Amino acid sequence: MRKRPLALYSAISIPFLVLIVFLIYPVLRVLIEGLLLNTGLSVSEVLESPVTQRAFVFSLYQAFLSTMLSVILGLSGAILLTRLRFRGKTLVRSLLIVPFVLPPIVVVVGFIRMFGSFGIIDSIAMVLTGSTETLIDLASGIPGIVLAHAFYNVPLVMLMVSSSLERLDPDIEESAELLGASSLQKFRRITLPHILPSLLASSLLTFIFCFMSFPIVLTLGEGRYKTLEVQIYDAFRSFDFTKASTVGILQVLVTMGLAFAYVRANRRQNVGTGPTRSIKTKSFSQLNPITRVLAILYFIILCTLVVGPIASILQSAVYDPVTATYTLDGFTNLLRIGTGGGFVPLINSVLYAILATILAVILGIPLAYSRRSKGKVLPSFTSMLVLLPLGISSITVAYGLMIAIAVPLGLTTNPWPIIVIAQTIIGLPFSAKSIEVSLDKIDNAILENADILGVSRTQRLMFVELPLLMPGIIVGAVFAFAMAIGEMSATLFIALPQNFTLAVAIYQNLIVRKFVEAGAASLVLVAICIISFLIIEHLSEESIGGAV
Amino acid sequence: MADYPTRRNPRLILGVIITTIVILVAAIAVVNTPANVTLRVYTYDSFLVWGDDPDTIDQRVFGPFERAHGVNVEIVRLPTDASGIVSRLAAESSNPVADVVIGIDNILVLEDIIATVLEPYTPTNLSLIDSQLVNTLDSEHYVVPFDFGLVTLIYSKNTINTTTHPQLENLTLSALADPELAGVLVTEDPHFSSPGLSFLLAEIAMSEKLLGQDWDEWWIDVNDYIDVQPGWSEAWSKWYEDPTRHLMVSYGTDPAYSSYITGAEPDTVAAPFYHNGVDYAWMQVEGIGLVKNNPNPDLAKLFIEYCLSPAVQSYISLNQWMFPANMDVELDPVFDYALHPDDVELLNDLLLGPEIKANKTSWLNQWDIIRTG
Fold it and tell me: What is the pTM of this model?
């Protein structure tokens, strides 16, 4: 390694500064002030309370079940998606991003229509059995919570695992076949070790997301099931800041403990990825009959779980349940300026999310470099820091940004920069991770050649490294965009009406029972994301000429 | 970044990125220009939105005040309820931007934090409001009554009625504990919903003060049968759409709303608690108050007084579906169908502020222990 110039170090320190100022400082301030204020119960009373303990156990329990289901369905989905050759694969891939952008409150409504009593599944079961009583209610209690979590996370596991599986070298598989390995042996000895890092990473993310789940548990839990995040939200609402801090610290200890274990495990078994290869694929007709049946079965399950709720949300965009008529009022509302009009939220959503995405990518590049740097401390520290935005209670972050940044700076009356920052931070883990994956694939020989040819450092970065990083930047941008545009907790707490995003507008519309407006806004949100995904994908193909 | 050419000056690329950011920031700044506001009023998301024309309601109700004083009033409907608004006021307390807050009710006002975010103010026209109502809300006048309503059970005659369930006529707490009725009841989580909390307090008052039994027994009895939703909207959706949930904890004005919407006899019926020949209900009083250290105190005080006058109060019934605090205001005939305060004994009189303040946390904790058990 050559001596690093000052400029490089400053570039690397910028994202750290951003995270310290806009995440660590506000959160620490809220947590510490909460402990010092001594509202209501003491720290030990909160920890000893059966209510806290049940929330703790339940958070772990449902996160475990949700992760199991998401991994089982996501892994099989990823294998099918990569192995099977079919038309419209790119489209399927882009559609997988859709669940990310849907605010949980909309998903809950879609879920109740699909899986609830007298929902679509239940109605089919009732017709089949000729029953007039409700038979199946999968949209409440633990089944509802776990299924809704799977809805969000199966696509996540599928996307992450399939992108790693696609790089599996077909030569290795052929050699194994020649040596007489069975399918199971091939999976255990070749496929699994290859995808293990991405499988671990996606399981960890899924677990953390579900562990900290809030609106889904609040709505489907019927007051019987509450996660730690629900308790934190409750504590803030009842001004019990000591309880909010205590539970918040308990929660972050678990999430960061998991992140730490993951970072260590990942460092040890760093599987070297070779030059870019593409996995062997098969068309549907080449599959054996059992595999075909399984594939069809899987397709039906996935459609029911993921497509079903989305379809029922989309139907609600044009169908008014109160008057039982079809209408386009929801869409005209999106063009309306003024109280309750959807135009400003629509524009805000797009502009905030684009800005947050650009920032997340700009900040993600130095983070990726610092994770790949030599030494032990900096990469591990960076990895932990990057996971931090996902592991801290979002209501605590929102409250912290409010008291530590917005109020002192006088941004309270128009807090849009704070919202963009919150959206940037939530997208950062994804942009940094994707760029890092690309960075791993860069052949060092190319960089050395560039050095030998005597290009300047800026030229090397601009002409050699960034083009090679493009695939990672693009995937990262897609995720960051989806996270930003779907962000709700922080926006909900911080925004004034002129800052509302579509996610907040949807929530508002549902509260006052404007289902058509909420449905139309959801549909547009989904459409924006698919379009932006396709645009980004198109741009990437042009710019990198199929180098992915 | 329209396309990525083989060679391009790095400065150009950087320039494009920076220009994009600048344009984005400028565009957001334009779209998000805050209105030229002189008076900022924080309230909850559903404030005055249940009328015929919610889009112009602010103009109609507050326009005269704006013209009379040459000011610009912004009604800021925050995407939360009154508790969330108080959280926000607490977060902003070092540098307040709101002048007035509407929606803090007679339970929320008991919180200690109220004294750090609000300033007591006695409007000069407070005599327009019945003094009993003023005291039910807050005798210290951190907030004064804006509107009020009775929290009670409602049902739809189409799905359940006194013929199918005669016990609805005089609904006792023990009748409601029966799985047949508890199994069709949907209520709101008292942690997250003010009608939910009002219902919990109503049940506590009924049990402890009238029936002489422990309040938690009823919740233990019904725990496996009732449905608890986080808020009023979710509970309403369940009650409206789920054919198995016929009874809901809501407001006594719902029959009036039902009649207004259908233009006929109401389908919705209020079922207050019954004990020894008397009907009971909990009264929720929502108040308006002055934000502590607000930027425009004089104007804010005038605004509060304006809000108690008929100019605002006459809009409450048909846009908010609560009773106006100013009882001189004439009500639409559909309000004949509503459950009136005169129809019932108020449970608030049995469970007073100091007792609620002293026990609320432990009651909610006990409720959680039963519910999550």
Answer: 0.92
